[in-house]
# Entry
Amino acid sequence: MLKPALHILRRHIEEITPLSDDDFTRIAEHFTEKKLRKHQFLVQEGDHVAHEYWVVRGCLKSSSIGADGKEHIVQFAQEGWWITDFPAYFRQKPATLTIDCLEDVELLSLSLQSREALCKEFHAMEHFFRRKLTSGFVALQERVLALQRLPAKERYEEFLALYPALLQRVPKRLIASYLGVSRETLSRL
# Structure
């Protein structure tokens, strides 16, 4: 009998590609449940990053600390999103990001070895991960261009349009950091 988190994961995968019951049962064996409390670290800078994580419940942030001592938010992740330090995960190098829980979280973790095995065995999973990586790359490029080209007010409006639920879940100082503005500027917006 599959756990509820795995049923949710199956729906997530099947938004992109259908799976038979037998295939999903074999795919599910590669995922491990992980639960963390608010303020716990999932990854800390310098850690070996062995897994990527799919968020079943909760909200996390990935960030780095600049030379100026300021925290720079790279990503938020809520239900249905994937998170890890991707360069560290794929290159098997120490993490350059810290990922911590903004709320209690329930995750499904997948090792790089399992990910590769799934892609090798199941064309559907290779297709799924390719589509997810492509979407993530597109979103990242759009974010970088917005940071470079758009004034703060337009970046904030875009954030509200794309991620309205995060406004209620994430402290304003973290949203300000994500948008590359001060807390005071965000308050004026």
Observations:
- The mean pLDDT is 95.
